[in-house]
């Protein structure tokens, strides 16, 4: 039986496909077209594989964007039983405007390892590195969270760096952070990247905080766990929407529980993969050439803790997925 460890390096083919699909329409202002092509190319690669695969959830339904179906079967059905959480393009709006830090990302594990967080409303998240494992709670105030991490990392508040999505829903958090005097990096999209760099020791970023989508939370938690950091997540429901809460319960979400990285991504056989769509903090973007494309990717896996960065050069002319693009570049 082929193991997930043996398959891990090849999983980059899926996010490479998503990145190329998305890159074809970077800067065109059409988010749905970016998502549609990223899903189309990723699905085509997945369905070539001898795996018994299932996409348990995918980013997109909340915004009625193109996405994998929930519980969509992928692969030929003849290989190992694997499950995926996929975001074909995290940072679709950024990509549509030609901005940085757009990636194609996924998490993969044996079946039954991931906590489903449907793309239905938002979830509150914080992520940081190993210094603060088991020291944080979402019942803490923003000030308490920052002070706890700063103390654990032995850094002064004025040198503390927070990364968060630039959203109106975060105005009160932003006010608290300004009052504390920390440095704040506001990003237009892409909190998977934010969680990764916050969980990476000596990255220059200390905390990701804020409300974002659910599939990204599980994908990011997988990466954070591979990095040895910590992430905690809870359903965010400021409008007290009882219908949403019932939908989440029906999907298997404990709507009052705070999930940590070990509960979102269970076990010790996990893979996180991402490929850059546009240039960003952790990956360069897709570079289209006269013959094909060059794509940069990262693969993290447990139990080894291995982190690999790779560069894939594709010639579209005879490629089964991309050959029809030869006249479009």
In short:
The chain is of the alpha+beta class and about 325 residues long. The chain has helices at about 5, 10-25, 30-45, 90-95, 140-155, 170-180, 190-200, 215-225, 240-250, 260-265, and strands spanning about 50-60, 70-75, 80-90, 105-110, 120-130, 160-165, 185, 205-210, 230-235, 260, 270-275, 285-290, 290-300, 305-315. Strands 1, 2, 3, 4, 11, 12, 13 and 14 form an eight-stranded mixed beta sheet that branches. The protein has a six-stranded mixed beta sheet with strand order 7-6-8-5-9-10, with helices on both faces.
- Shape field: globular
Provide mean pLDDT, rounded.
94
CATH architecture of the largest domain: 2-Layer Sandwich
Helix content: 25-40%
Describe this entry's structure for a reader.
With 329 residues, the protein is α+β, with helices and mostly antiparallel strands. It folds into two domains: 4-112 and 269-328, Fructose-1,6-Bisphosphatase, Chain A, domain 1, CATH 3.30.540.10; 122-264, D-Maltodextrin-Binding Protein, domain 2, CATH 3.40.190.90. Helices cover 29% and strands 27% of the residues. It is built from ten helices and 14 strands. It has helices at residues 4-7, 12-23, 31-46, 92-96, 142-153, 171-180, 191-199, 214-227, 242-250, 261-264; strands at residues 52-58, 72-74, 81-90, 103-110, 122-128, 161-165, 183-187, 207-212, 230-236, 259-260, 270-276, 287-288, 292-302, 306-315. Strands 1, 2, 3, 4, 11, 12, 13 and 14 form an eight-stranded mixed β-sheet that branches. Strand 13 (292-302) and strand 14 form a beta hairpin. The model has no long low-confidence stretch (mean pLDDT 94).
């Amino acid at each position: 039986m082929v193991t997930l460890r043996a398959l891990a390096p090849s999983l980059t083919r899926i996010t490479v496909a998503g990145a190329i699909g998305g890159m074809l329409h970077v800067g065109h202002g059409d988010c749905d077209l970016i998502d549609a092509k990223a899903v189309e190319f990723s699905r085509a690669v997945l369905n070539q594989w001898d795996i018994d695969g299932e996409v348990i959830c995918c980013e997109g339904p909340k915004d009625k964007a193109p996405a994998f179906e929930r519980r969509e079967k992928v692969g030929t059905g003849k290989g190992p039983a694997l499950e995926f959480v996929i975001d074909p393009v995290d940072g679709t709006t950024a990509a549509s405007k030609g901005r940085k830090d757009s990636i194609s990302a996924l998490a993969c594990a044996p079946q039954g390892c991931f906590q489903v967080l449907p793309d239905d409303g938002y979830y509150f998240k914080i992520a940081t590195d190993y210094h603060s494992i088991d020291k944080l709670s979402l019942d803490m105030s923003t000030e308490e969270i920052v002070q706890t991490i700063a103390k654990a990392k032995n850094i002064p508040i004025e040198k503390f760096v927070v990364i968060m999505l630039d959203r109106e829903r975060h105005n009160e958090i932003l006010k608290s952070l300004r009052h504390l005097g920390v440095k704040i990096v506001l990003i237009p999209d892409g909190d998977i990247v934010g969680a990764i760099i916050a969980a990476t020791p000596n990255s220059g970023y200390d905390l990701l905080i804020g409300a974002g989508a659910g599939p990204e939370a599980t994908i990011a938690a997988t990466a954070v766990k591979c990095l040895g950091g910590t992430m905690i997540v809870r359903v965010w429901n400021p409008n007290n929407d009882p219908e949403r809460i019932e939908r989440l319960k029906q999907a298997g979400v404990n709507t009052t529980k705070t999930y940590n990285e070990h509960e979102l991504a269970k076990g010790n056989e996990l893979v996180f993969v991402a490929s850059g769509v546009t240039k960003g903090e952790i990956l360069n973007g897709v570079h289209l050439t006269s013959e094909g494309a060059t794509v940069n990717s990262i693969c993290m896996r447990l139990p080894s803790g291995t982190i690999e960065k790779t560069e894939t050069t594709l010639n579209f002319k005879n490629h089964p997925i991309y050959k029809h693009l030869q006249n479009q570049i």
